[in-house]
Amino acid sequence: MVSMLYVDTSSGDQYLKQPAVGQYLSTYFITNPKFANEEVIFFYRPKTPIIICGVNQNIYSEVDLAYCKKQGIKIARRGAGGGAVYVDPGNLTYCFVDDDRHHHYLDFKYYAKNAIQTLAKLGVEAAMTGRNDLTVANKKFSGMSALKIGHRFSTGGTLMVDVDLQRAAKALRPPKSKMSSKGVKSVHSQITNLRPYFSPKYRQITLMELQTQFLLNLFQVANLDQVPTYRMDQTDWQTVEKAAQKKFGNPSWVMGTPVTDQNYHSEHFAGVGTVEISFSVTDGVITHAKIFGDFNKMNGDLGEIERQLVGAPYHLANLTEAFKQGNPERNIGPISPEALAKMMVDKRFADKSTIN
Hints:
By secondary structure, this protein is of the alpha+beta class. The protein is built from 13 helices and 15 strands. α4 (108-121) packs across α7, α10 runs antiparallel to α11 (316-326) and α11 (316-326) packs across α13. The longest helix is centred in the N-terminal third of the chain and has 14 residues, at 108-121. The radius of gyration is 21 Å and the shape is globular.
């Protein structure tokens, strides 16, 4: 029988200064046999400003790297899908680790309900909107993402309380198609901190107090002593740090390779996310293609699609057939080959702002 367990990560401050360690925690709890029969809830609070990109995103198009370098903002990449987020010590991230036999994989609403209930008790009228966003007064304070390994997965979201929104707006630069789909002109116009929305009684609430309220509501208990808890020790942290640096601390994994193609198109697909394709055409034939995006299917083989595109004539019918052979539903999500082909040939989807 699976039970719920709170994993206390508060002993890891010195380790969590490394962005790679924070990004590896989900993988650690998913794969560690110690937690195989538990549904885990844990929290992560960054120690420094960080941009965290999704596993399939193009960092060079999503992030103003020059600004981040100047401001000392670190860059990280999660193992899960989803979009790029700016986090700093004013943000609290919660994360559930569960088993897919419960049929809740990618059910963001299910894993967001405790956050919504907790915030309601604190005076915040939060709601889930779109595919994986939590909002208040039509402004986003949380984006959720998911990571699946075998039959175990993690799902988490952010609780932005005192995040530096000016920095976030300057550091992030999502594709114009994503902004258009949300009816906004900038990142800054669509995100908010929760602090102004707490009722007067809770207006000065700390992130630790918010975390406590989250746990009390989740476990339906009166105090933390009643919450089943596992406290990370130094052996745990040393294991996490060693494994984290192999992948999440690897600059090649984090940054990827800059693309130098002639074309960069993007489109936001409802229920799936934004898909971006960088591609080159020579003598009417696709000679290179690379797919990026903030879609949550992180286990898909994008290379299968890219290989089908290379060598295809740059015409709608030929590209449609290439996408069919690449199986986008299996590798990206429920998007038709015709829609993806149209995105590549229609100049309205050209996103020049993403090319450095």
